[in-house]
UniProtKB/TrEMBL annotation:
Locations listed in the record: Cell outer membrane
Domain of life: Bacteria
Domain annotation TonB-dependent receptor plug: ranges: 55-155
Keyword hit for Metal-binding: no
Domain TonB-dependent receptor-like beta-barrel: 240-577
Protein name: TonB-dependent receptor
Record's keyword annotation contains Transit peptide: no
Family indicated by similarity: Belongs to the TonB-dependent receptor family.
Pfam families: Plug (PF07715), TonB_dep_Rec_b-barrel (PF00593)
Protein species of origin: Pendulispora albinea
Keyword list, A-Z: Cell outer membrane, Membrane, Receptor, Signal, TonB box, Transmembrane, Transmembrane beta strand, Transport
Amino acid sequence: MFLTIPMAGFLVSHTVYAQTRTVPTSPEKEEPKIEEVVVRAKPPPRSASDWEADEKVVGSTPHETGADALRVIPGAFVSDRGLLGRAPHLSLRGFDGTSGQDVEVFVENIPLNQASNIRAPGYADMRLVMPEVIKSVRIQNGPYDPHQGDFAIAGSAHMELGLPKAGFWGKGTLGSFRSRRIFLGYVPNGDFWRDCFAAFETYSTDGAGTGRAGERSSFIAQFATAKQDMSFRSVLAIGTGRFDFPGYLDQGFVERGGYPYTSRQPLGRDRASHAHLGAVLQWTMDGGVMEVGAFASRVKMGFHENLTGYVFDATAGIPPAASDDAEQVNESSTIGISSRYRHHVKLTSKRDLVELGVYARLDNVDQSDTRLVSDGTVHTRLVDATVSATNLAAYVDTRLHPVKHLTVRGGTRLDSLTYAVKDRTNNQGLERSAQGFHLGNKVTFDYFSGSGVHWIASYGEGFRSPQARTLSEGDRVPFATVQSFEAGVRVKDRIWQASLSGFQSWLSQDRVFDPTLRQNSEAPGSRRTGVSFAVQARRGMFGSTTSGTYTYAVFTGSDRRFREGDIVPYAPRMVLREDAYVMGNLAKIGDDHLVGRIGLGLEGAAMRELPGGTDGKNVFYVDALATLGWREVELGISGINLLNLQYYDSQYVYVSNFDKDPNLPPPSPHVLVAPPASIFVSLQIHLPPKKRDPNQYDE
C-alpha cells in the first residue's frame, strides 16, 4: 500500500506494502495480491483558523475564474468582480492586499506573486485557472509557517488541481450580456493516472453596459504519479486575455440616478499573457523524505487607462491640454528551485521531526508607465526600468512532542534578497543595487484535549519585499515586516468541524492604492485586531460552510495621506460568508438515476472605510446554481447577484478632472458598480472511458 502522510508544511511519501493472500482452491499456490493505494494528505494546521475548502464547497456556487473561487476562504473579500482583465482586489482579515500584495498565492507549487510588479509588489493573477479543475483551496492565515516567504503578510493561499473522474469532459455555457464559454477536459483512465488531466477554456462576453467586453483562453495540464517510495507531480498552465476597462464613475453621479454601467471615454484596456511550469519530486531515502521542486513563469500584463481626466497638467500649473491617459506594462520572467529533507529525530520524544529546506528564486522584470497623447503616441515616459531580483532562503522546521497531547511546531527562516535596478527615466540607464536580509521566527503550540478539540496558539514574523525602483544605490532593503499572534480552538468530528480564534498583527509599513499614481504607494505602519470563526457541517446529501471575520485596522504612524489612529481604508471590517449545497438522486429513469444538485452562496462585507473618514457602501450578494444530471449529460443553470442589488465592486477616493477645469476639485469617491443579476445556462457531457477488452487489440 502506498500512502502519502502529512509532514508539517509539505506532502511527503511513505511506502507500506499490504499483502493479502487468497485461500487456495487448487493445489497450485496463489501469489499474494498487492494493493496499491495513494492518499494525498495535507500539512497540519499552523493556526486555529487555517481552513480548506474542497471541490464540493468550491463547486457549490458559480465561479467565473480561479480568482473568483477564493471567495470561499473564510475572511477573504474578493472584489473587482466586473474587471475580468486583471487580478482581483483581494482583502484578507483587514489587509487590503490589492491584487495579492499581502497574500502569498500558489497553484500547486507555482508561486503567482510577481516581485516588484509596477502595479503592486506581489501582484497575483489567478484568472487562467478554470473553476472546474480546482480540487481544493487552502488558506494558511498569518505568517506562522517557516515555509512561507515573501508576501505572506496576511497568509498564504494554495490551490490544488484535479478533475474528479476519468474520461472526456465537454461543457458549453451561454448567459447574460452575450457571455459564451467552452470548457474541454480529459482525464486518462487507471489508478496510475488518477491525478493527471488536461483542460482547455475559452470565454468571451460583451459585459454589462459599455466598456466591459473581452475574451480569454487558457490551457492547464497536470501529470502526476506515485509508485512505491516515489511520487512526481508537474503542472503546465498557459493563458491569455484581453478585456476593456470602463474606468471609475463619480459616486455622486451614480447616486443621483446616472446609468451605473456607462464608461469613461476613451475606453481603457487590460491584457495579459501567462505561462507557468512547476514540478515536484519526492522520494524516501535513509529513513527520511527528500523533496525537490522547480518552477518557471513568464508573465506579461498591460493596463491602458485614464482614471483622473486632466489632473497632471493642472497640478503642474499649466492649462489642462493633455489627458492623463497612460499605459502600464509589466513583463517578468521567473525561475526557482526548492529542496527539503525531513527526518525523525529523538529530542523530546520518538515522534519528533526536523526538516531543513533551501529556496532560490530569480526574477527579471521589464516595466514601463507611459503617458500618452490623444493619438496614442508617447507624451512622457514616467517609468522605464529593468529590475533583477534574487531571493535565496533557508529554513529549519521542527515538530516536537515535549509532553503528552502537546505538539510544538516551528522554526526560523532566513531570506536574502538582492536587487539590481536599471532606471532609464532619471538615472541615464545606470544600474544601482541593494541587498537585505530578513529573519523570521515562527512557533505554534497545539494542545489536544480530547474529543477532536485542539487548542492552538501561534506566533510568526513575515515580510513583504519593496518596490525595487524606490531603492537607492547601496541601500539595505527596507522590508515591510509583520509580527502576528493568534490563539483559538479547532473542533472536528465525523460530520462537522469548526474554528474560533482571535488575532492581532503589527505591520511596519503598509501600502494603499493611489489612483492618481495608478499603483500601490507606501503608507504608515498599521495594527490589526480581530476575531474569526468558521463552521462546516456535512451529513448525507447536505453540506454547509459558514464563516465570519471582524478586523479593526488602524494606522500606527502618519504621513502626508494618513494620520496615526486613522482606519486603514478600503478593506471591510466585517466579512460574512455562507456556502451550502444539497445533492442526491431524484428519480430513476431506466437503469440510471436522475441526479439533482442545488448550491447557494451568500456574502456580505460591511464597514469599509474610505480615505477622509467617509463610509464605504456595504456589499451583499447571492449566487446560486442548480443542475440535473442523467447518464453522461448534466444541464445546469446558475445566477450571480440574483437579488440584483446595486453594490460597488470598487470604491476609491481621489481627485478627477474630466472637465479640463484649471482649478482642481477636492477628492471625491469614485466607484465601479458590480455586475447586475446575471443568468447562465450550461450543458455538460462526461464520456467515461470504456472498459478495455483484454482480447481486443488496437488497429
